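Title: Comparing notes on inverse folding

I've been comparing how different people in this forum approach sequence design from structure. To keep things fair, I'm posting one structure and asking everyone to reply with a full sequence. Here's the target:
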């Protein structure tokens, strides 16, 4: 296309605006319908997946005449590698944040009276968390994100989208300023993970690994209490290091571990870069 710069910028802005509208409409419509059927948090997780999948499919068909998988969901040996790398990275990070204070003697796992292990509930939750993570990654690292990277580059895209990612968690129970800051840091990490790998499987793996591990270790996840294993984390450390009622994501420990994950992705992780359809022109120029 030989579009003048203002015309190309206008096209980009229009496509992103349409995408954002569809995501917002999908969250409201699917979230409301699922809320009446199942309540929270099922509505939030399945609603995010449905909104992300539908919005991306619609704009990919309208503007690119392509399918949903072209946003970085294509499957290959590299995709499997990235998914597993991400899951391991997210799980190890969560283990460090939770088990570190236990080993230091400032936290302990305590039996919750009247609560037993519910394996059926655990399985359902793991599936829901998977759908929720995939939905958020499609919404925040899908079409709109990739179109913006192609237009203005990764640095001008990742930070603003990460701030928006954090802002939309501001209504979570017991949220704190540090919790929101850490959510923004996670947004930067997940955005970089996409740019580093060229697919959504690496950020999905990181997201899922972290979200699976925290509730299984008895901690709150983004302010929500799951009570699945019959045990809960009790910390003697102050809220700055424990995260308080918001959970570990509201702690400085999470801030540090996200920085370590970023360095691992940038320097050591054996990532094989894919070539997503929406970024083909930019990456051919690099």
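Reply #1:
Here's my take.
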């Amino acid at each position: 296309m030989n579009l003048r710069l203002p015309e190309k910028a206008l096209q980009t802005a229009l496509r992103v605006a349409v995408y954002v509208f569809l995501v917002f409409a999908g969250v409201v419509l699917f979230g409301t319908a699922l809320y009446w059927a199942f309540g929270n948090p099922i509505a939030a997780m399945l609603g995010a997946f449905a909104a992300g999948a539908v919005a991306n499919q619609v704009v990919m068909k309208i503007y690119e005449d392509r399918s949903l998988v072209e946003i970085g969901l294509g499957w290959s040996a590299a995709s499997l590698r990235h998914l597993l790398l991400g899951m391991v990275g997210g799980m190890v990070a969560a283990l460090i944040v939770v088990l570190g204070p236990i080993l230091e003697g400032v936290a302990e796992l305590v039996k919750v009276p009247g609560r037993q292990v519910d394996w059926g509930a655990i399985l359902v939750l793991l599936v829901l968390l998977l759908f929720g993570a995939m939905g958020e990654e499609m919404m925040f690292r899908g079409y709109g994100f990739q179109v913006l990277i192609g237009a203005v580059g990764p640095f001008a895209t990742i930070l603003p989208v990460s701030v928006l990612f954090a802002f939309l968690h501001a209504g979570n129970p017991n949220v704190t300023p540090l919790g929101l800051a850490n959510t923004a840091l996670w947004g930067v990490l997940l955005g970089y993970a996409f740019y580093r790998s060229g697919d959504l499987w690496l950020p999905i793996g990181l997201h899922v690994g972290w979200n699976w591990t925290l509730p299984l270790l008895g901690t709150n996840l983004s302010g929500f209490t799951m009570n699945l294993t019959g045990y809960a984390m009790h910390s003697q450390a102050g809220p700055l290091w424990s995260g308080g009622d918001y959970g570990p994501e509201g702690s400085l420990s999470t801030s540090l571990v996200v920085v370590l994950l970023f360095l691992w992705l940038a320097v050591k992780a054996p990532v094989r870069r894919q070539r997503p359809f929406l970024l083909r022109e930019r990456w051919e120029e690099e």
